[in-house]
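Q: Hi! First time doing this. I have a protein sequence and I read that you can turn it into a structure. Is that right? Here it is:
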Amino acid sequence: MADDKFKFTKEEISEIEKNLGFIVFDWAKHLIVHIISQARGKGVDVVYMNTPESLSAGAPPDALAIVLENIENYTVSSYAAKNPSAPPDALRALAGNKEHESLLRYIAENPNCPTDVLRNILEGGDTIASKYAVKNLNTPPDAKIKWMRDTGRIGKENPEEHVIEYDGKEEKDEDLEKLKSLVS
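A: Yes, that's right. Below is the predicted 3D structure, encoded as structure tokens:
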């Protein structure tokens, strides 16, 4: 009965997708206008949009450093923090700023994130940012293993203490023996 509530025709689905598209496009248009007006107010002539679509093209590292130093918009800053062109020093400075801890997740997934920053994120315990830091290829293996042990993702047991010893005695299964005798 609960499944019947959410059955839509193809036409209804198409209409929903169209309306959602208008909402998202309108939101993005307002965001872009806001960013450009802030940039012009600060004397910036050229604005590089650092959106998911432009990540592959990349923004100049200097521009990303400016965005990361002067955080005024969380969305734009999060894209700048995870852009692979972001300078490591700018990421380090941002990670050290307690006021912007919510951006740690994006810093941790950046391939340019310095190893000392990744290590510090993992030492912070089981957080959203640490789950991204542990997946980063720059994270030192010893820091990953320590984090996994500390958070209970892997055990601290000594594998030599868990050796399974085979005593050589086989238990006879009567049903299996009957089956073998019937087959042969």
